[in-house]
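#lab-general

N.A. 3:47 PM
ok so I finally got the sequence cleaned up, no stray characters, all 159 residues accounted for. can someone with queue access submit it? mine expired

B.Y. 3:52 PM
send it over

N.A. 3:53 PM
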Amino acid sequence: MSTEPQGHARVSADAAARGLSVEIFPRPAANSLVEAASLMGIEPSDIVKSLVVKRSDDTFLFALVPGGRSISWPKLRAVVGVNKLQMPKADVALAATGYERGTITPLGSTTAWPLYVDEAVLGRRVAMGAGEHGYSMFVDADALIAAFEATVADISVPE
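B.Y. 4:20 PM
back already:
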């Protein structure tokens, strides 16, 4: 049996190792972005989706995009410097990160893939998945970007 922390404990351990302050909290399930934001007392754009993206060489990256926006594939490809990227199937995303869809976060990922963050999250305190269903976390976006030495660019479009 593994003694490594799992779920949100893995997120907390990685955040602590990076000197990053996060607030992890239980939250009820929501049926929409608007409902989730309302439950947390924030705006939908303050919820950041952590998306795992597959490159053609079978490596991955994380793309962080605020609620109400989606990845702009042409913009992300240009920033990454590749001509093909895709969303992997759920089982592939789990194998790449150790997290199920809906819980994915770069914090505590089983592999530290490069992080690309949409510029719209700069200067904000955001909510993200926390590695486990039923939990979210608040984190200062700028501190998260610094902790990962993330690439910040315009990589999204309105949904």
